[in-house]
């Protein structure tokens, strides 16, 4: 039973793993991630891989929306930049080490993030959201152009390379999982630590009251652009992993739908917390699949039943999201917090 | 059974375990398992909803007749929302459920996505809604096939028909999608070979195209024929209607997904008879053309027996799905008859060996499967008064 957190110095106050449930929770999660692929089918690995990649992207979006308070509806495009940069690098230099490709894709996406973050100096809120929308259309338009088709495949899309580590080609989904998950964990740790630094606190200050932050000496333009760069870099890394994970990519995989999905994952999970993107992504990507499994178990996958089951399932999922936002607007992470508060006081208080 | 917290947790755990369990621990199915992804929701929900009954009816019809090789079939259909990665998840979930003998995909995007994964134990014979030319490639896509000619073939059929009728100029109007661009390069080449000048190539959005601009360009180019590619219904009322309102006499043509009678009928009903004379290539007979199609008659009787409200018409979209299933069944029967093991390789070998097959009326002539496709089709013309597509060419082989 936890009865309180008694901190006696600043380093304890800044500590990430400040109590044993957090420490052991992390250990259990890492062990779970490590043994999962040995028990899972390809289907479960496919979902896990997608969730891992989306967590990276949503964590990036969290840096921008959750911590800096800047809205974006264009991060699906940065995802595409990462994916297509990876494909293009392997097209030119097929034997490039995957981590180098990952880093380059991340940097290229960050550069695009800076470019599309420029309006953030002048506008914010919904206006910035509308300004960032353009990224979806401009970047996808470029990807689909014939003169870039040698590297992007144009509107037809393109097959993607497999990552090769020291002569070992990651072909199976199990092998790809072991590439994605460590990257995801490292990027989560980076995000968690980012907000313990001076830089991270500056972003939070901008979110809380930007003109106050400026009065305190924080260069708004520079910090906002850096926030855009970091969040786009995360999406670029996610795109690179996506290209390694799926055997082919199409322009329609990205764009506005993906941008909105990323935002929905973040809102559902909870903004401004590292756990938010994890919970939100799992909820948004896993629940529709679980609903499919349940519906298939009930109907046996019968084709005629599917004509009404499928739309009904979508409606149910939509209602669930609406209900969730009404009754838990702070996101899943708030339920998590309440649960642990309850556990820490039980049985003496609720 | 009362639904309490404990029951809910147990059910959840069981479902999770079921979805995670490796296929190796599953018992072999007593059925021949078939699964499909269809767009029951999303932009092509109309097509998915219309095609779906074909699967349950095929299942019932085959099982009523003793199954295949004495073993019943079981078909599981899942919605993809026309999102390739959803369809991939559906496919892998179906695979995790044990022996999967055939899969029907819902899009070119899905077929492209899944193609490279169909190797070793993951290989499955696979048909789809797609006529993308890239799928007719046994060397690189040994398990995927199409139940008809590729879009390139369909373009070629149209261009040959234009040449036969003395046409000299043509315009290609296509959507800015993979579907739209697929046959364009091949079309240019064939047009050149046939001495037809391509006077305009116009790229539009798949839906909500900038019609005035496109119609103006058509008027300037003044082609005798205009081939539309990469649309299901989206541009008919606007583009063809707009062109007619502008006084253009160009003959509009389309390919398979732009040739469905019920859509043409609906457009005619709502917007007038401007589709009159619209032509296009169709790989199969229309369902109302049953004189030399015993299979169609049999299918119609079956549909009436299970559904007294059956309208008497089966969409070309449904026929395409049904033909994929019939081809799989044919291959299964031949493999079993030859006392071979039912494997994707053996099934595809039988598919590739199909020669002079009497399809029972789907196609006008006996067909061959070459390069995992069937290169045959005919040009039809829509008559707005009778609301029928009538043939205006012989069956053309490509």
CATH topology of the largest domain in chain B: Rossmann fold
Counting helices, strands and paired strands, the structural category of chain A is mainly alpha
User: How many whole angstroms does the radius of gyration of chain A measure?
Assistant: 21 Å
What are the segments of chain A in which pLDDT stays under 50 over at least 5 consecutive residues?
none
Helix content of chain A: over 70%
Instruction: Supply the helix-strand structural class of chain B.
Output: alpha/beta
Order of neighbouring strands in the sheet with most strands of chain A: 1-4
Order of helices and strands of chain B: HEHEHEHEHEHHEHEHEHEHHHEEE
Radius of gyration of chain B: 22 Å
How many H/I helical runs of chain B?
13
Treating each run of at least 4 consecutive H or I residues as one helix, how many helices of chain A? 15
Major sheet of chain B, described briefly?
A: 8 strands, mixed
Quaternary class: heterodimer
What integer is the average pLDDT of chain B?
Answer: 88
How many DSSP E strands of chain A? 4
CATH class of the largest domain in chain B: Alpha Beta
| Residue share in β-strands of chain A | under 5%
Low-confidence stretches of chain B: 17-27
Ordered list of secondary-structure elements with their pairings:
The complex is a heterodimer of chains A (350) and B (398).
Chain A: H1 10-14, H2 20-39, H3 42-67, H4 75-92, H5 98-117, H6 126-143, H7 149-152, E1 158-159, E2 164-165, E3 168-169, H8 173-194, H9 198-208, H10 210-215, H11 220-245, E4 248-249, H12 256-269, H13 275-299, H14 303-327, H15 332-345
Antiparallel strand pairs in A: 1-4, 2-3
Helix pairs in contact in A: 2-8, 3-8, 3-9, 3-11, 3-12, 3-13, 4-5, 4-6, 4-11, 5-11, 8-11, 9-11, 12-13, 13-14
Chain B: H1 5-20, E1 32-38, H2 45-64, E2 73-79, H3 84-96, E3 102-105, H4 108-114, E4 126-128, H5 151-164, E5 169-175, H6 178-181, H7 184-194, E6 197-204, H8 211-221, E7 225-229, H9 236-245, E8 251-254, H10 261-271, E9 279-282, H11 294-306, H12 316-337, H13 344-352, E10 376-383, E11 388-391, E12 396-397
Parallel strand pairs in B: 1-2, 1-3, 3-4, 5-6, 5-7, 7-8, 8-9
Antiparallel strand pairs in B: 9-10, 10-11, 10-12
Helix pairs in contact in B: 2-12, 3-4, 5-7, 8-9, 12-13
């Amino acid at each position: 039973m936890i009865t309180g957190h008694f901190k006696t110095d600043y380093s304890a106050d800044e500590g990430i793993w400040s109590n044993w449930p957090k420490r052991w929770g992390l250990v259990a999660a890492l062990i779970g991630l490590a043994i999962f692929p040995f028990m899972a089918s390809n289907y479960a690995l496919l979902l896990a891989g997608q969730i891992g990649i989306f967590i990276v992207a949503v964590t990036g979006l969290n840096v921008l929306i959750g911590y800096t308070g800047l809205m974006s509806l264009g991060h699906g495009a940065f995802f595409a930049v990462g994916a297509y940069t990876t494909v293009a690098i392997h097209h030119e230099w097929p034997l490039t080490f995957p981590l180098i490709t990952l880093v380059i894709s991340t940097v290229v996406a960050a550069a695009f993030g800076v470019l599309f973050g420029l309006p953030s100096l002048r506008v914010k809120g919904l206006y910035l959201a509308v300004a960032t929308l353009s990224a979806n259309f401009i970047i996808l338009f470029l990807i689909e152009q014939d003169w870039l088709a040698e590297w992007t495949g144009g509107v037809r899309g393109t097959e993607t390379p497999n990552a090769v580590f020291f002569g070992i080609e990651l072909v199976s989904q199990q092998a790809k999982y072991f590439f994605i998950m460590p990257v995801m964990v490292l990027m989560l740790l980076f995000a968690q630590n980012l907000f313990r630094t001076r830089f991270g606190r500056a972003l939070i200050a901008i979110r809380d009251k930007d003109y106050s932050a400026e009065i305190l000496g924080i260069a708004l333009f520079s910090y906002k652009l850096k926030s855009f760069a970091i969040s786009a870099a995360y999406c670029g890394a996610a795109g690179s992993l996506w290209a390694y994970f799926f055997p082919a990519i199409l322009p329609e995989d990205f764009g506005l739908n993906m941008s909105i999905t990323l935002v929905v994952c973040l809102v559902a999970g909870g903004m401004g917390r590292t756990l938010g993107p994890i919970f939100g992504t799992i909820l948004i990507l896993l629940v529709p699949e679980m609903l499919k499994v349940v519906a298939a178990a009930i109907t046996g996958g019968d084709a005629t039943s599917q004509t009404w089951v499928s739309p009904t399932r979508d409606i149910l999922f939509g209602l669930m999201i609406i209900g969730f936002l009404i009754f838990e607007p702070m996101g899943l992470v708030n339920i998590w917090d309440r649960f642990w508060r309850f556990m820490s006081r039980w049985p003496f208080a609720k | 059974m009362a639904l309490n917290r404990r029951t809910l947790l147990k059910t959840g755990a069981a479902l999770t375990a079921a979805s995670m369990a490796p296929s190796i621990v599953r018992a072999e199915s007593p059925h021949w398992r078939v699964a499909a992804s269809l767009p029951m929701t999303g932009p092509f929900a109309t097509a998915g909803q219309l095609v779906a009954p074909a699967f349950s009816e095929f299942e019932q019809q085959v099982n009523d007749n003793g199954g295949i090789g004495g073993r019943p079939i079981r078909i599981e259909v899942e919605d993809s929302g026309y999102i390739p990665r959803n369809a991939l998840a559906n496919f892998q979930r179906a695979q995790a459920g044990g022996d999967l003998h055939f899969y029907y995909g819902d899009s070119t995007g899905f077929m492209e996505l899944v193609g490279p994964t169909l190797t070793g134990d993951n290989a499955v014979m696979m048909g789809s809604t797609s006529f993308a030319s890239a799928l007719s490639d046994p060397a690189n896509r040994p398990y995927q096939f199409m139940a008809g000619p590729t879009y390139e073939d369909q373009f070629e059929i149209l261009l040959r028909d234009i040449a036969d009728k003395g046409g000299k100029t043509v315009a290609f109007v296509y959507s800015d999608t993979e579907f739209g661009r697929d046959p364009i390069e091949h079309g240019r080449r064939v047009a050149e070979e046939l001495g037809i000048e391509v006077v305009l190539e116009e790229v539009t959005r798949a839906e909500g195209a900038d019609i005035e601009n496109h119609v103006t360009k058509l008027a300037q180019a003044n082609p005798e024929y205009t081939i539309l590619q990469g649309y299901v219904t989206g541009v008919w009322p606007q583009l063809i209607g707009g062109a007619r309102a502008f006084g253009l006499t160009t003959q509009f043509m389309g390919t398979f997904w732009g040739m469905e009678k019920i859509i043409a009928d609906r457009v005619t009903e709502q917007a007038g008879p401007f589709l009159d004379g619209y032509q296009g290539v169709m790989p199969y007979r229309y369902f109302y053309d049953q004189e030399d199609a015993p299979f169609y008659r049999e299918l119609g009787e079956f549909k009436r027996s299970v559904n007294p409200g059956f309208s008497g018409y089966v969409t070309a979209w449904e026929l395409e799905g049904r033909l994929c299933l019939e081809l799989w069944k044919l291959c299964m029967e031949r493999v079993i008859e030859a006392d071979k093991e039912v494997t994707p390789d053996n099934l595809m070998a039988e598919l590739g060996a199909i020669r002079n097959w009497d399809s029972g009326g789907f196609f006008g002539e006996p067909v061959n499967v070459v390069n995992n496709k069937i290169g045959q089709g005919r040009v039809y013309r829509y008559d707005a008064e009778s609301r029928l597509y009538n043939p205006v060419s012989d069956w053309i082989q490509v």
